[in-house]
Target: Ubiquitin carboxyl-terminal hydrolase CYLD
Amino acid sequence: MCAVCVFCVSLYSRYPFTSPGLGNMASTDNVYFILTKKDEWIAFPKAGSIFFMPENKFISEMKKSSPPLKLRMRLMKHHSGREYDLETNDMEQLCVEEVELLQALPDDAERLRCFRERHDLQAAMQLVIGTEVTVEEAGKKFRGVIQYTGPITSASISCPIPGSFFGIELQGPDRGKGHCDGTYRNVRYFTCDKNCGIFAPFNRVSSLLPSVQEPSFQSERLELGDRVTYFIDDKCRHGMVLDLLEIGGRCFVQISTVSNIPFFNSKIISNQHHQMLSSSCKFVQQLSVAHTLQQPFGHLLYLLSVYIHNRIFGVYVFFFLDQTDHSTAELQTVPPMSTEQVEQLLTGRMKGIQGHCNSCYMDAALFSLFSCSSVLDSMLFKSTPPQDAPIQRTLLNDIVNPLRSNGFVEGKHIMKLRQQLQKHGYSQSFTTDEKDPEEFLSVIMHHILALDPLLKLSAAGKVQESYCYQIFLDQNHRLVLPTVQQLLEHSFHSAGLKLAEVPSCLILQMPRFGKKFKMFDKIIPSLELDVTDLLSEGPQQCMVCGTLAQIECIDCFKDPLFSPTGFKVFCRNCSEQVHSHPQRLSHKPESLEIPKGYVERKNPHTMIRDKMELFAVLCIETSHYVSFVKYGPNTEDWIFFDSMADRQGETDGFNIPEVHPCPEVGEYLKMSPSELAHQAPRDMKGVAKRLFCDAYMCLYQSTTMCLYR
Model:
């Protein structure tokens, strides 16, 4: 897209119009922009700087007979009234919420990075008071709760919008590691104990349970799938953006004109608001068929040329000869590989998914999820908006089906998926940089395919939703060689969480200090995960006598007398006996919620327990991801996958993926914790060391619940 059109589109389409001004800019007297590039020979201003100008002056400039190539703007900075003449091509517009968050960042380069990548910025807009978060301070991460959001400095003429910070009260073992009690420069913004508070900008704050609310379109540029309003012969038309492209150096927007597209909350790309836009845009008052294209489905597409001050803005208007929805064409279904198919088709060199250019995080995640499991197949077939259908088709037809039918996926198909994701605007580095598997999964499951959240967590009576769960531990856990069962229970215990329901798929991130620093030398992947005691509702068994539990004691959880796994729940009689001991008189047991109408079985020991089975493990070593997959019912039915196991040639060569059996993994998983503790990693057989020492993410499925979702 040409630079002028980028600027014009960003001005006229990023926000719905609530006045002759710029949408939610109507609440202020200014319009705001970020400098995205600058002349490399000029030291200042720097890219990433924020500028503003009065709204009425901006409107006046835009009403002139020809659009301005430069605008005179003031640098947003305290004690600076300096103005600059800036190229319109070098700027992008900001909404007030973006300005507030970005202004809290002191570094221009970091500000620009956050604006371009947008992930942290969008996540920060969902943070509210009461959200449990981690905050980075001096290279360390602490847990806390947001108690304040807003500025901690005053506005001024040269800086009308001061930066918005998050005031966080540290929790649990991190209390006392802050630097304030909720005050900043003698002004109180919230109340907490001494050294239990931290003020931090958004790029150092992360929610423990990522919100799954859809990002507001008001913070986006014109994107694929946007509902838009445009004008032909002064008549208002509505449609959907299908593509943004450049043809012959001209910028075009493909718009579907299907009549049943809803137009509420649409973005206006050519406007009837004469006070601002019509005077600055001259349109050809007739349709001119300037170009025709032949689509794969045989539909002719006609080009409507729209001129903005003698610059082609261009709108592709789709006139379909019929209204058949080809995105709902019959989809081929290939089931996951059976045990026999894995042994015949999937093992060997040039098998699995071929890696290319830092794609190992995506290769390992897709191989783990789809090679031998169908737990998330619903995302391949669910109804998808037209703008997202190409990504779904690539995932199904070019990756999952070839993997399951032939045992091999070429690297070009993964690159195609990465290009499609990058085109959607969630990150400008999907095709080049290494990402985390959870970032990729969040984008594909949540933002693209809108899969229902996999995980529903109950905390203090409120249900929060997410796709993955990051295991956090307090500093007093006393675990040395933990199982995943123990890690999950300790994390839920310290955070006061329960499962609102049994998930069909549970994606667990192992505790780490970043990708490079492991919290444990070894972690034992539990083959079964018993989540019965982790449910917020449902009958539970007394851990002593096996009858219906009515009491839970959080204080007993870490009592060394009891088993190292399982929440400590008792019937009333056993609870009284347990807590009559002098060492437990200070405990505070609480009553459990028992489902209404529940009738205890005659034989309480036959109570059905909710369990999930391990089906894959992603591991990381020196920033390279690999995966282990359980492909059959036998103990030794494990395979190891590396998308870049070997390479043919140098810079113009290619990676050789490999899948091979690793039955030794099953042998070690049968060992007791004490036996495993005596196994030196360097002496472990085959690739078993990587499973136990480098586990990054464990994937569990419920064979019962996946039938219903």
